[in-house]
Amino acid sequence: MTDDELLAAFASTVLPADQFHHEQHVRAAWLFIQRHGMPAAIGEFSEAIKRFAAAKGAHGLYHETITWAFLLIISERQARQPHTTWPEFAAANADLLSWKPSILERYYSEELLMSDLARKTFVVPDRDGG
């Protein structure tokens, strides 16, 4: 699926949920950053994720801290080492494509990341990332 096809299917919510796994989330986030820049991508992608989840009957799945944290990490990585295509970015940042374990485990305790507060609003990491 091309970048444009993925974004169109995601934004219109016609993309089947079983075709939108973690890697597709990261790819869509990378594309939103590429096309909207930061910080606009935070608002645009967050709203698109909420819309997609609602269309799939998964209203309670949106998690603000996970969404924002991935956007911020992707944006920083892209700024440090720009890549013009998704395959290039994915190859250079394979650690972002793993969901279990997730890169966020380096920055957040499970207790904080799974808290109601972290689900509703972005919370700063409670680990140093080392």
Descriptive keywords:
single chain, 130 residues, globular
Characterization of the model:
There is one protein chain. This protein is mainly alpha-helical and 130 residues long. 56% of the residues lie in helices and 0% in strands. The chain has helices spanning 3-11, 22-36, 40-55, 64-80, 86-92, 110-113, 116-120. Helix 2 packs across helix 4 (64-80) and helix 3 (40-55) crosses helix 4. It starts with a helix and ends in a 10-residue tail after the last helix. The mean pLDDT is 96.
How many individual β-strands?
0
Largest sheet: none
Output the helix-strand order. HHHHHHH
**Rg over CA atoms:** 14 Å
Our count of helices gives 7
Taking pLDDT < 50 over at least 5 consecutive residues as the criterion, the unreliable ranges are none
The proportion of strand residues reads under 5%
What is the overall silhouette? globular
The residue fraction in helices comes out at 55-70%
What assembly state would you assign to the polypeptide chains in this entry?
single chain
Q: Give the integer mean of the pLDDT values.
A: 96
| End-to-end C-alpha gap | 35 Å
* Helix/sheet category: mainly alpha
Topology of helices and strands:
Blueprint: H1 3-11, H2 22-36, H3 40-55, H4 64-80, H5 86-92, H6 110-113, H7 116-120
Helix pairs in contact: 1-2, 2-3, 2-4, 3-4
